[in-house]
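Below is how a single chain appears once it has passed through the pipeline. First comes the sequence as given, then the structure the pipeline wrote out for it. We keep one example in the README because the format questions we get most often are answered faster by looking than by reading.
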Amino acid sequence: MKKNFVVLKTYWNINEKGGSFMFSYLQKIGKALMVPVAVLPAAAILMGIGYWIDPVGWGANSQLAAFLIKAGAAIIDNMPILFAVGVAFGLSKDKNGAAALAGLVAFEVVTTLLSVGAVAQMTGVPADQVSPAFGKINNQFIGILCGVVAGELYNKFHTLELPKFLAFFSGKRFVPIITSVVMLVVSFILLYIWPIIYAGLVGFGISIAKLGPVGAGVYGFFNRLLIPVGLHHALNSVFWFNVAGINDIGRFWGDPAAAYAGLPEAVEGAYHVGMYQAGFFPIMMFGLLGACLAFIKTAKPANKEKIKSIMLAAGFASFFTGVTEPIEFAFMFVAPGLYLLHAVLTGISVFLAASLNWMAGFGFSAGLVDFVLSLRNPNANSPIMLIVLGIVFFVIYYVVFTFVINKFNVKTPGREDEELVEVVAEGGVNAHTAVAVALLPLLGGKENLVTIDNCTTRLRLEVADSSKVNDAEIKKIAAGIIKKGNAVQVIIGPHVEFVATELKKLV
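Resulting structure:
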């Protein structure tokens, strides 16, 4: 057991240069995603209320329900765009709107060029024969990819000076232009590799369907694991819909007499209607609520109220509607190891529900709305036991997440800003300049500073050589310093933005 703890600690506390770069980068992406993620719970709740009002017609029988569903869907259905804009803006050095615009441009170029109609035109293949992968090109992975590319291009070219006759297009105006050109290349690459990735996942899904409850557990694991890159839809199409003849959602809500009609020969005897849905209810309605409580419990005192408001809203959205992204995107990048644990627990839940034949189904997602609707479905079996299982997983998530977070000091939401120490005295720009001037040589000089950024209380720096950073002397000026390879964080306090601005001027 001790050996396993050492392995986990090595994973979460990365000390190698390559690992530290990834840690720093994932932290930046996670931070950038928090703005759009904060909007998702409200959108999910609106949709859930709409589905509750009109559970049959989903807005067809109620104008109020239609209004609420469409209002929520305006956000939920456009998550990839929000991520493209948010990541590009968050990765930009000076948080300029031009970076966000570049992120939007990047996303529009890729999704337009790789739409089914455009692919059909470019390849000369009839639209109905185009790979179904391109019908799923509008996903979170593409959004994050576009945001990363646009953000990095902004950082590289936003100060570029073109010849005088092209001067109008210099600097920030050049960024969307170069972004559109680069995304042409990215789109060309995706044109060939995206269908391969998609087809591989579909083939993988068909192979694990033969394994019965074990396969259901494996599916549950990969369903969560693939969410950060938006590729879970490929697996879902195998199990939930009729891509491979399983069509679990259709069979659950269809005629009970035909629930097992026309099953693929490969899964006969290994399949039970609802087995690819039921196990998600304990996780979405209960397990992730335990995770939310753990995040609130382990948050630093200064951040507790903020995290409580975010997690209560996100937890309610997950319980009521089954929309889990507000919770998952809040920690999947800042704590990837913990997200892996979440995927494992989801797989276990789906396996147990399938093994015990505790069945319920959903039309939208595994929240309270769909759970109540499925109670009267003839294909449901002992659905109340899923609540019992859910309570068990609530406890497991809370206990395990709390233990892991504290044991390995995992930087979950609310734990990044450990100290809110006001180091810079009230005194205007001169005081901030003085701190920046004092820090610069201690950080190895301007030649050693690769990037300068900040969060609420910390300077977030990337240095060329961390050995040139004088930790002892910096601690005399700042509240603390954290180093992970070439990623350096200097704890300044709530005035850190002004210090960062002055430091950038010196460099």
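DSSP finds 20 helices and four strands in the chain.

See the next section for the split statistics.
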